[in-house]
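Hi support team,

I'm opening this ticket because the web form for multi-chain structure prediction keeps timing out on my end. I have pasted the exact lines I submitted so you can reproduce it. The total is 945 residues across three entries, so I didn't expect it to be a heavy job. Is there a limit I'm missing, or should I split the entries? Thanks in advance, R.K.
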Amino acid sequence: MSIALYIQGRNRSYTPHQSGWVAFASSFAKSADSRLTLITQGLPPDKAAQLGGFGADEVMVVDGMPPVSDLHNSIEALFPLFKEKGKTFILFGNDTHSKALAALIAARLEFGIVTGVGALPESFSPLVLTRKAFSGKVLTSTLVGKPGVVLVFNAGVGEAVAGISSPVIAELHLNGNSDEGIVVDSEETGDGKQLLTDALRVVSGGRGMKGPENWKPLEELASVLGAALACSRPVSDEGWRSHHEHVGQTGKVIAPELYVACGISGAIQHVAGINGSKVIVAINKDKEAPIFEVADYGIVGDVNTVLPSLIKALKE
Amino acid sequence: MKIAVCLSHVPDTTTRIKIGSQSDQIDYTGVQWVINPWDELALTRALELKELPGSGVDEVVVVNVGDSIADPVIRKALAIGADRAVRVNTAPSDSLSVARILAAFFATERFDLILAGLESSDYNGGMTGMLLGGVLGYRTLNGISALNLEAGKLKLSREMDGSRQILVVEPPLVAVVQKGIAIVPRIPSMRGVMQARTKPLQVVDPVKVEAGLTTIGYSYPKPKGACRMVAPGNENELIALLKTEARVL
Amino acid sequence: MEFSFSEEQLMIRQAARDYAQRELFTDVIERDEKSVYPENHVRALADLGFMGMMVSPEWDGGGMDAVSYVLAVEEISKVDASVSVIMSVNNSLVCWGLETFGNQEQKEKYLKPLARGEKIGAFLLSEPEAGSDATSQRTTAIDMGDYYLLNGTKNWITSGHTAGTYLVIAQTHPEKGHKGINAFIVDRHASGISVGPHENKMGMRSSDTHSVMFTDVKVPKENRIGDDGFGFKFAMQTLEGGRIGIAAQALGIASGAFELAVKYAKQRKAFGTEIANHQSVAFKLSDMAVKIETGRLLVLKAAWLKDQHLPYGVASAMAKQYCADMAMEVTTEAVQIHGGYGYVKEYHVERLMREAKLTQIYEGTSEIQKIVISRSVLKD
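Hello R.K., no limit was hit. The queue was backed up. Here is the completed structure from your submission:
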């Protein structure tokens, strides 16, 4: 039995969700009575070792890979490593790059693939996993018929505790071919703002905010909380905010520890994007708004008066 | 250039999902089937590209894996503007099986660009498009939020976590697309509905694949506990609860 | 008996629903408040083929049946009856009238752009002193040899300002009474036409209703529809089809209000439970549902008769009278279920109630429909 988890670093470091994945993979490996190998890419050895300390037994620090969007060659380069270290389970987080590699390695190894994993298996033998389907409306139990499985974890899983393991570190330089049919025309590496999908706290505004000119208090609340900003679909459709901020079924699906919904009624499509949040706070003037059915804490009131006093209270 | 759009049929996203009495299947009675939202956006973009003057796009074809329950949804795609449709005649199972079935079809007919939506709104697996690319061995990219044609090549924007690349890619390509590829899905016009009457919907037999995964049971998630209400003006109390009870501050 | 819709009919209903819920819904309150003509929506619906959806493809129409049309009008009306009245007038009065009674040249020149929705049509029958009584037309069209000279005033003209093409009913031979009436195709921008101010209406406030004055307007001879004296018959037959459109509109207003009321009743809590669980509300919803279903069957029956080329005049009168009165009742109840929220604009139902009122009045009041129905009932 061997279990491998793949993590690609972010800006030469790692995010809280990523340390959560290591912790979750570790409990997964323990339940399966197996060792966990963490395979990292884009991380300096010290950071990789730190990340491994959240529960890995071994860390393979990989560098020298083909360009990031050259996915086939990336898999070609990583393939021997996955084959050796992930005989039974190959685990990934749910960021865009990891999902791409997950699918390609599954296709290559003819492994079954289960995504949206947010809990340990119901049983290991036979392997049965519970996951959400229909955007959280039902749970399904999936039986994996044969050994050799790729799993993709949800964001927000795992209780990350630093330094609970002291993994063996190995560095590995991989050379890959590169595909001349994919040319990078330009690249933006973000504006340094934290990503909505990474953020542990998110402040979100809906149509109840009445207009883009009323976003100031949301921005202020986000800055006090260290939160990222999000919005509901009508807000991005109306062009009040960029569609990058849209969370919901067709937008981004997020799983922060704290989600603050302001002036959001809580349509089923919106809830589909946030129901992985640990704690949901809703502020809405309509006490019948469906958002209160999914919220943990609620204030019925006008966002224009509640937000300023919430910000004031937080600052104190 | 030929573009294929992989199209899933899914229950309308506002439908209440009912579990059958044996808890081993979903009760689809009375469910309204729609085009999977991301596939609809992919189709919309494919048609926009075809309509650009001198685009060089000859054909936009929708490809579905499904039984005849999918036909009305497929004909809607034809009414929206796809030139023809192919349905691989089998009920879809797990994503790797569907990908292999699709790959077997695409081995018989070559497309320069194959579009697949980010995920289907039923099982939310989000893997079929990438798996298809993997099995087919075509260039494969996910996170595609913009797509243009440039001198016979594909110019696309790939959004990864924390960065974005503008890529110029030589076909053939499997692109897994997400929001941004198109903003609003197209609505079929009367002319489109009329033309759909005579557009081909070809039904082909699937290759035999063995499903690796089986869904053996369904259940409803536990209802969430009641929302704890805090009176406006008592924001301090909310903060205290978030600190001590929820422990997220 | 066959009570199911074809796949195409369902597709068209869904297309209309998608457009209405996605696009019309976002600015309907603002347009109503400010009486803004829904120019972009009319354009978009024209591009989708909804403005000439029953016209044969030969004349650039959508080639759909009356049942599809009724389903589309209902869906549009659930959200915005101002838009659906523009659609209804163009489809069932102007396009239908021209396609059925116009000659080849008239269809080529006038029907095609109307069916494509590039131009919008208006139907000019009502006068300041002749509303329901269409026989006493005071607008005159005097035969001048090469042309007709048009004089008079028309009232309550839907799309009166925006239309590009008018169908005008006028008296050519006053001595012959209604047998002297003719129908003419008139270019909206012909010299001698002036359009009165926008009527500040109670409901359907974003459709442009105007009076139109004709002063020595020259109408080419070839623009007369049918033989000399055909105008009254033209108007009556066209209005028979128009009633189906307005009946479908009233049905949509009612079912739109009903959908909102159901949603609200399942959400709003009072006395510790959702108000839908209170029998007083549940029974109201039950009554509303039965009335709407009755209305829907009447409208679909009239549309079906039309599609079968069977007489539908009485069926369309029944549908229109019932649906209009029913829409008034159902929207009033929808407001009642919403309580105070129903009385404010944000919740849409007060607007639907205002819109419902007009369906009892225009294209033949409920009383006129009862005349049509009772005459047929009492006929030997």
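A quick check on our side: The mean pLDDT of chain B is 94. Let us know if the file doesn't open in your viewer.
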